[in-house]
């Protein structure tokens, strides 16, 4: 079964969609997909669907939702005598498990490729880091589970993968800066700073890219915009690290012009 959660929810078995139309079964499928090959307890599924207001009929209703999902899977498996729906959506002691093959859930693939990119970055192989992290980021087709109503459990899962996405993006941009691609990434960074006006790391990367592109005054403008936003919104000054970067741009500190590593 191929499942995508990094954007609208899709799940296909033998090319046939098994995504239900009703909201609560979609929540269940999403949570099982994010936790694929691991048991999701009945209590966790109930918390996701009903929060703190769990009805007395919850156990029976949950079993009905699981049955609906299995019927969708069974229809997609039609003609395959070697597998049944209960072998895909498995009942385990205290919960349920969605069994998938490696590489079939995009969120899991994103985690795997991002880990490889992070390792390359830490090893100083910025070419590989940029390539791998860029490949991982291309798996996203919008906000995670954008068309699924999320409860308290899925909300945390979505937050986790979105934070991982931001971290991968920051690391990929850092690799590009170390590769001397400052001019190419300025437009992307302008958009990111506009979308995240209080994100200090994106601002720092934009300031660095602009300075290296010969636009120190624009780098100073970016700092001032961030400072005004932080003061107005939170009553805070930029961090010491960003203030030091501001001073380095003002003084044209040659340390900002990092030597590009040799390719090879």
From TrEMBL:
PROSITE patterns found in the cross-reference section: OMPR_PHOB (PS51755)
CDD domains membership: BTAD
Coiled coil region boundaries: none
Keywords for this protein: DNA-binding, Transcription, Transcription regulation, Two-component regulatory system
Positions of the OmpR/PhoB-type domain: 1-100
SUPFAM superfamilies in UniProt: C-terminal effector domain of the bipartite response regulators, TPR-like
DNA-binding region, residue intervals: 1-100
GO MF: DNA binding
InterPro entries: AfsR-DnrI-RedD_regulator, BTAD, OmpR/PhoB-type_DNA-bd, Sig_transdc_resp-reg_C-effctor, TPR-like_helical_dom_sf, WH-like_DNA-bd_sf
A biological process term (GO) from this entry: regulation of DNA-templated transcription
Family according to the record: Belongs to the AfsR/DnrI/RedD regulatory family.
Protein name in UniProt: AfsR/SARP family transcriptional regulator
Species for this entry: Streptomyces antnestii
